[in-house]
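The following block was generated as part of the benchmark described in Methods. Ligand: flavin-adenine dinucleotide.
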Amino acid sequence: MILRDSENSGTFKDVWVLAEFAGGKVHKVTYELLGAAKKLSDKLLRKKSRVVCLVLGEGAGTKAEKFFHYCADVVITVDDSSLKTFNDTVYASVISRLVKKYKPEILISGATSRGRSIMPRVAVLVETGLTADCTGLNIEEGTGLLLQTRPAYGGNIIATIKCEHHRPQMSTVRQGVFKAPVPDNSGTGEVIEEIVLEAEKKTRISVIEESFGEDKGINLSDADIIVTGGRGVKGPKGFDMIAELAQALKGAVGASRAAVDSGWISYTHQVGQTGRTVQPKIYIACGVSGQIQHLTGMQSSGFIIAINKDAEAPIMKLADVAVVGDLFEVIPEIIKLLKSG
Ligand SMILES: Cc1cc2nc3c(=O)[nH]c(=O)nc-3n(C[C@H](O)[C@H](O)[C@H](O)COP(=O)(O)OP(=O)(O)OC[C@H]3O[C@@H](n4cnc5c(N)ncnc54)[C@H](O)[C@@H]3O)c2cc1C
């Protein structure tokens, strides 16, 4: 069954968010997307569009209430022991059946490793399009179509993509692109319990073990303060200084791709289009020029400080405070001040 909506007829409604639920925990991106879904739903021409949160996994049923606090009007739960470990073919089969049954107009998920694995499978099964790694979502005035924004051609252009004739309109969005709404603990709604069909449990993939890795103490996505080093720090020793500043500020260490590609620091620290998207309260860019691929990953930060010896570097134009100087002189002074205070 192909889900087409060539006349934009109104058969398809509601904005769905696929919750990320793993190891008994809900991933933060789910709340961010519920907030975004609420804004989209409010803008849709059809007045009765609702925010629907779809959550799969063993124990998923216990999480419904929390989603109501974050703008969900309806929560569809699929709580089954067969979903205890993550198997993308099983998840995709269940989700695509539910999509065919309820006909959502829009389906979004986090661009996490799970989202990136499930969503293309679902898009194929329901024969619709998918825009991956969106950095913006909006509703087009007049048509009510989803405008999906993402960098293209190596970040040189920002493309806006529409899916006019097939439904649902599907996107994955990186963590940190949208802000999670302030929870409203009085929020409530309808819970729909769905099941996994026996046929959907049949899969050629067997999961032997599932483990949830720690980020070695650096959680860039959750950090309030990030100190990032670029090519200007000149080597691994320069990153010791960046780490010292980050530690003094109780922040995390970020890096530009140039620094990562040079082997000065590991990829887990990379900020940007092919690294993490971050949204800290304070972002300090040291020896980073601010190419578009880097800015894509940090431009929504609350307050940006750039330290660069080139006053004309693009990052200096974006920064709230631009310090023109040699980082090897400026940073030790800041560390000294922080330690003395
Ligand atoms: C498809 C694609 C994806 C990409 N993804 C990413 C990504 O995810 N993240 C990312 O960061 N990049 C990414 N890039 C690379 C990006 O285009 C840039 O090459 C990279 O961001 C440059 O890193 P940089 O700013 O550290 O280095 P440079 O551009 O070389 O800038 C170094 C800066 O340091 C300053 N400097 C030098 N010495 C000092 C000093 N002593 N004191 C103060 N300042 C000094 C210089 O003035 C300069 O502005 C991607 C590129 C492509 C094509």
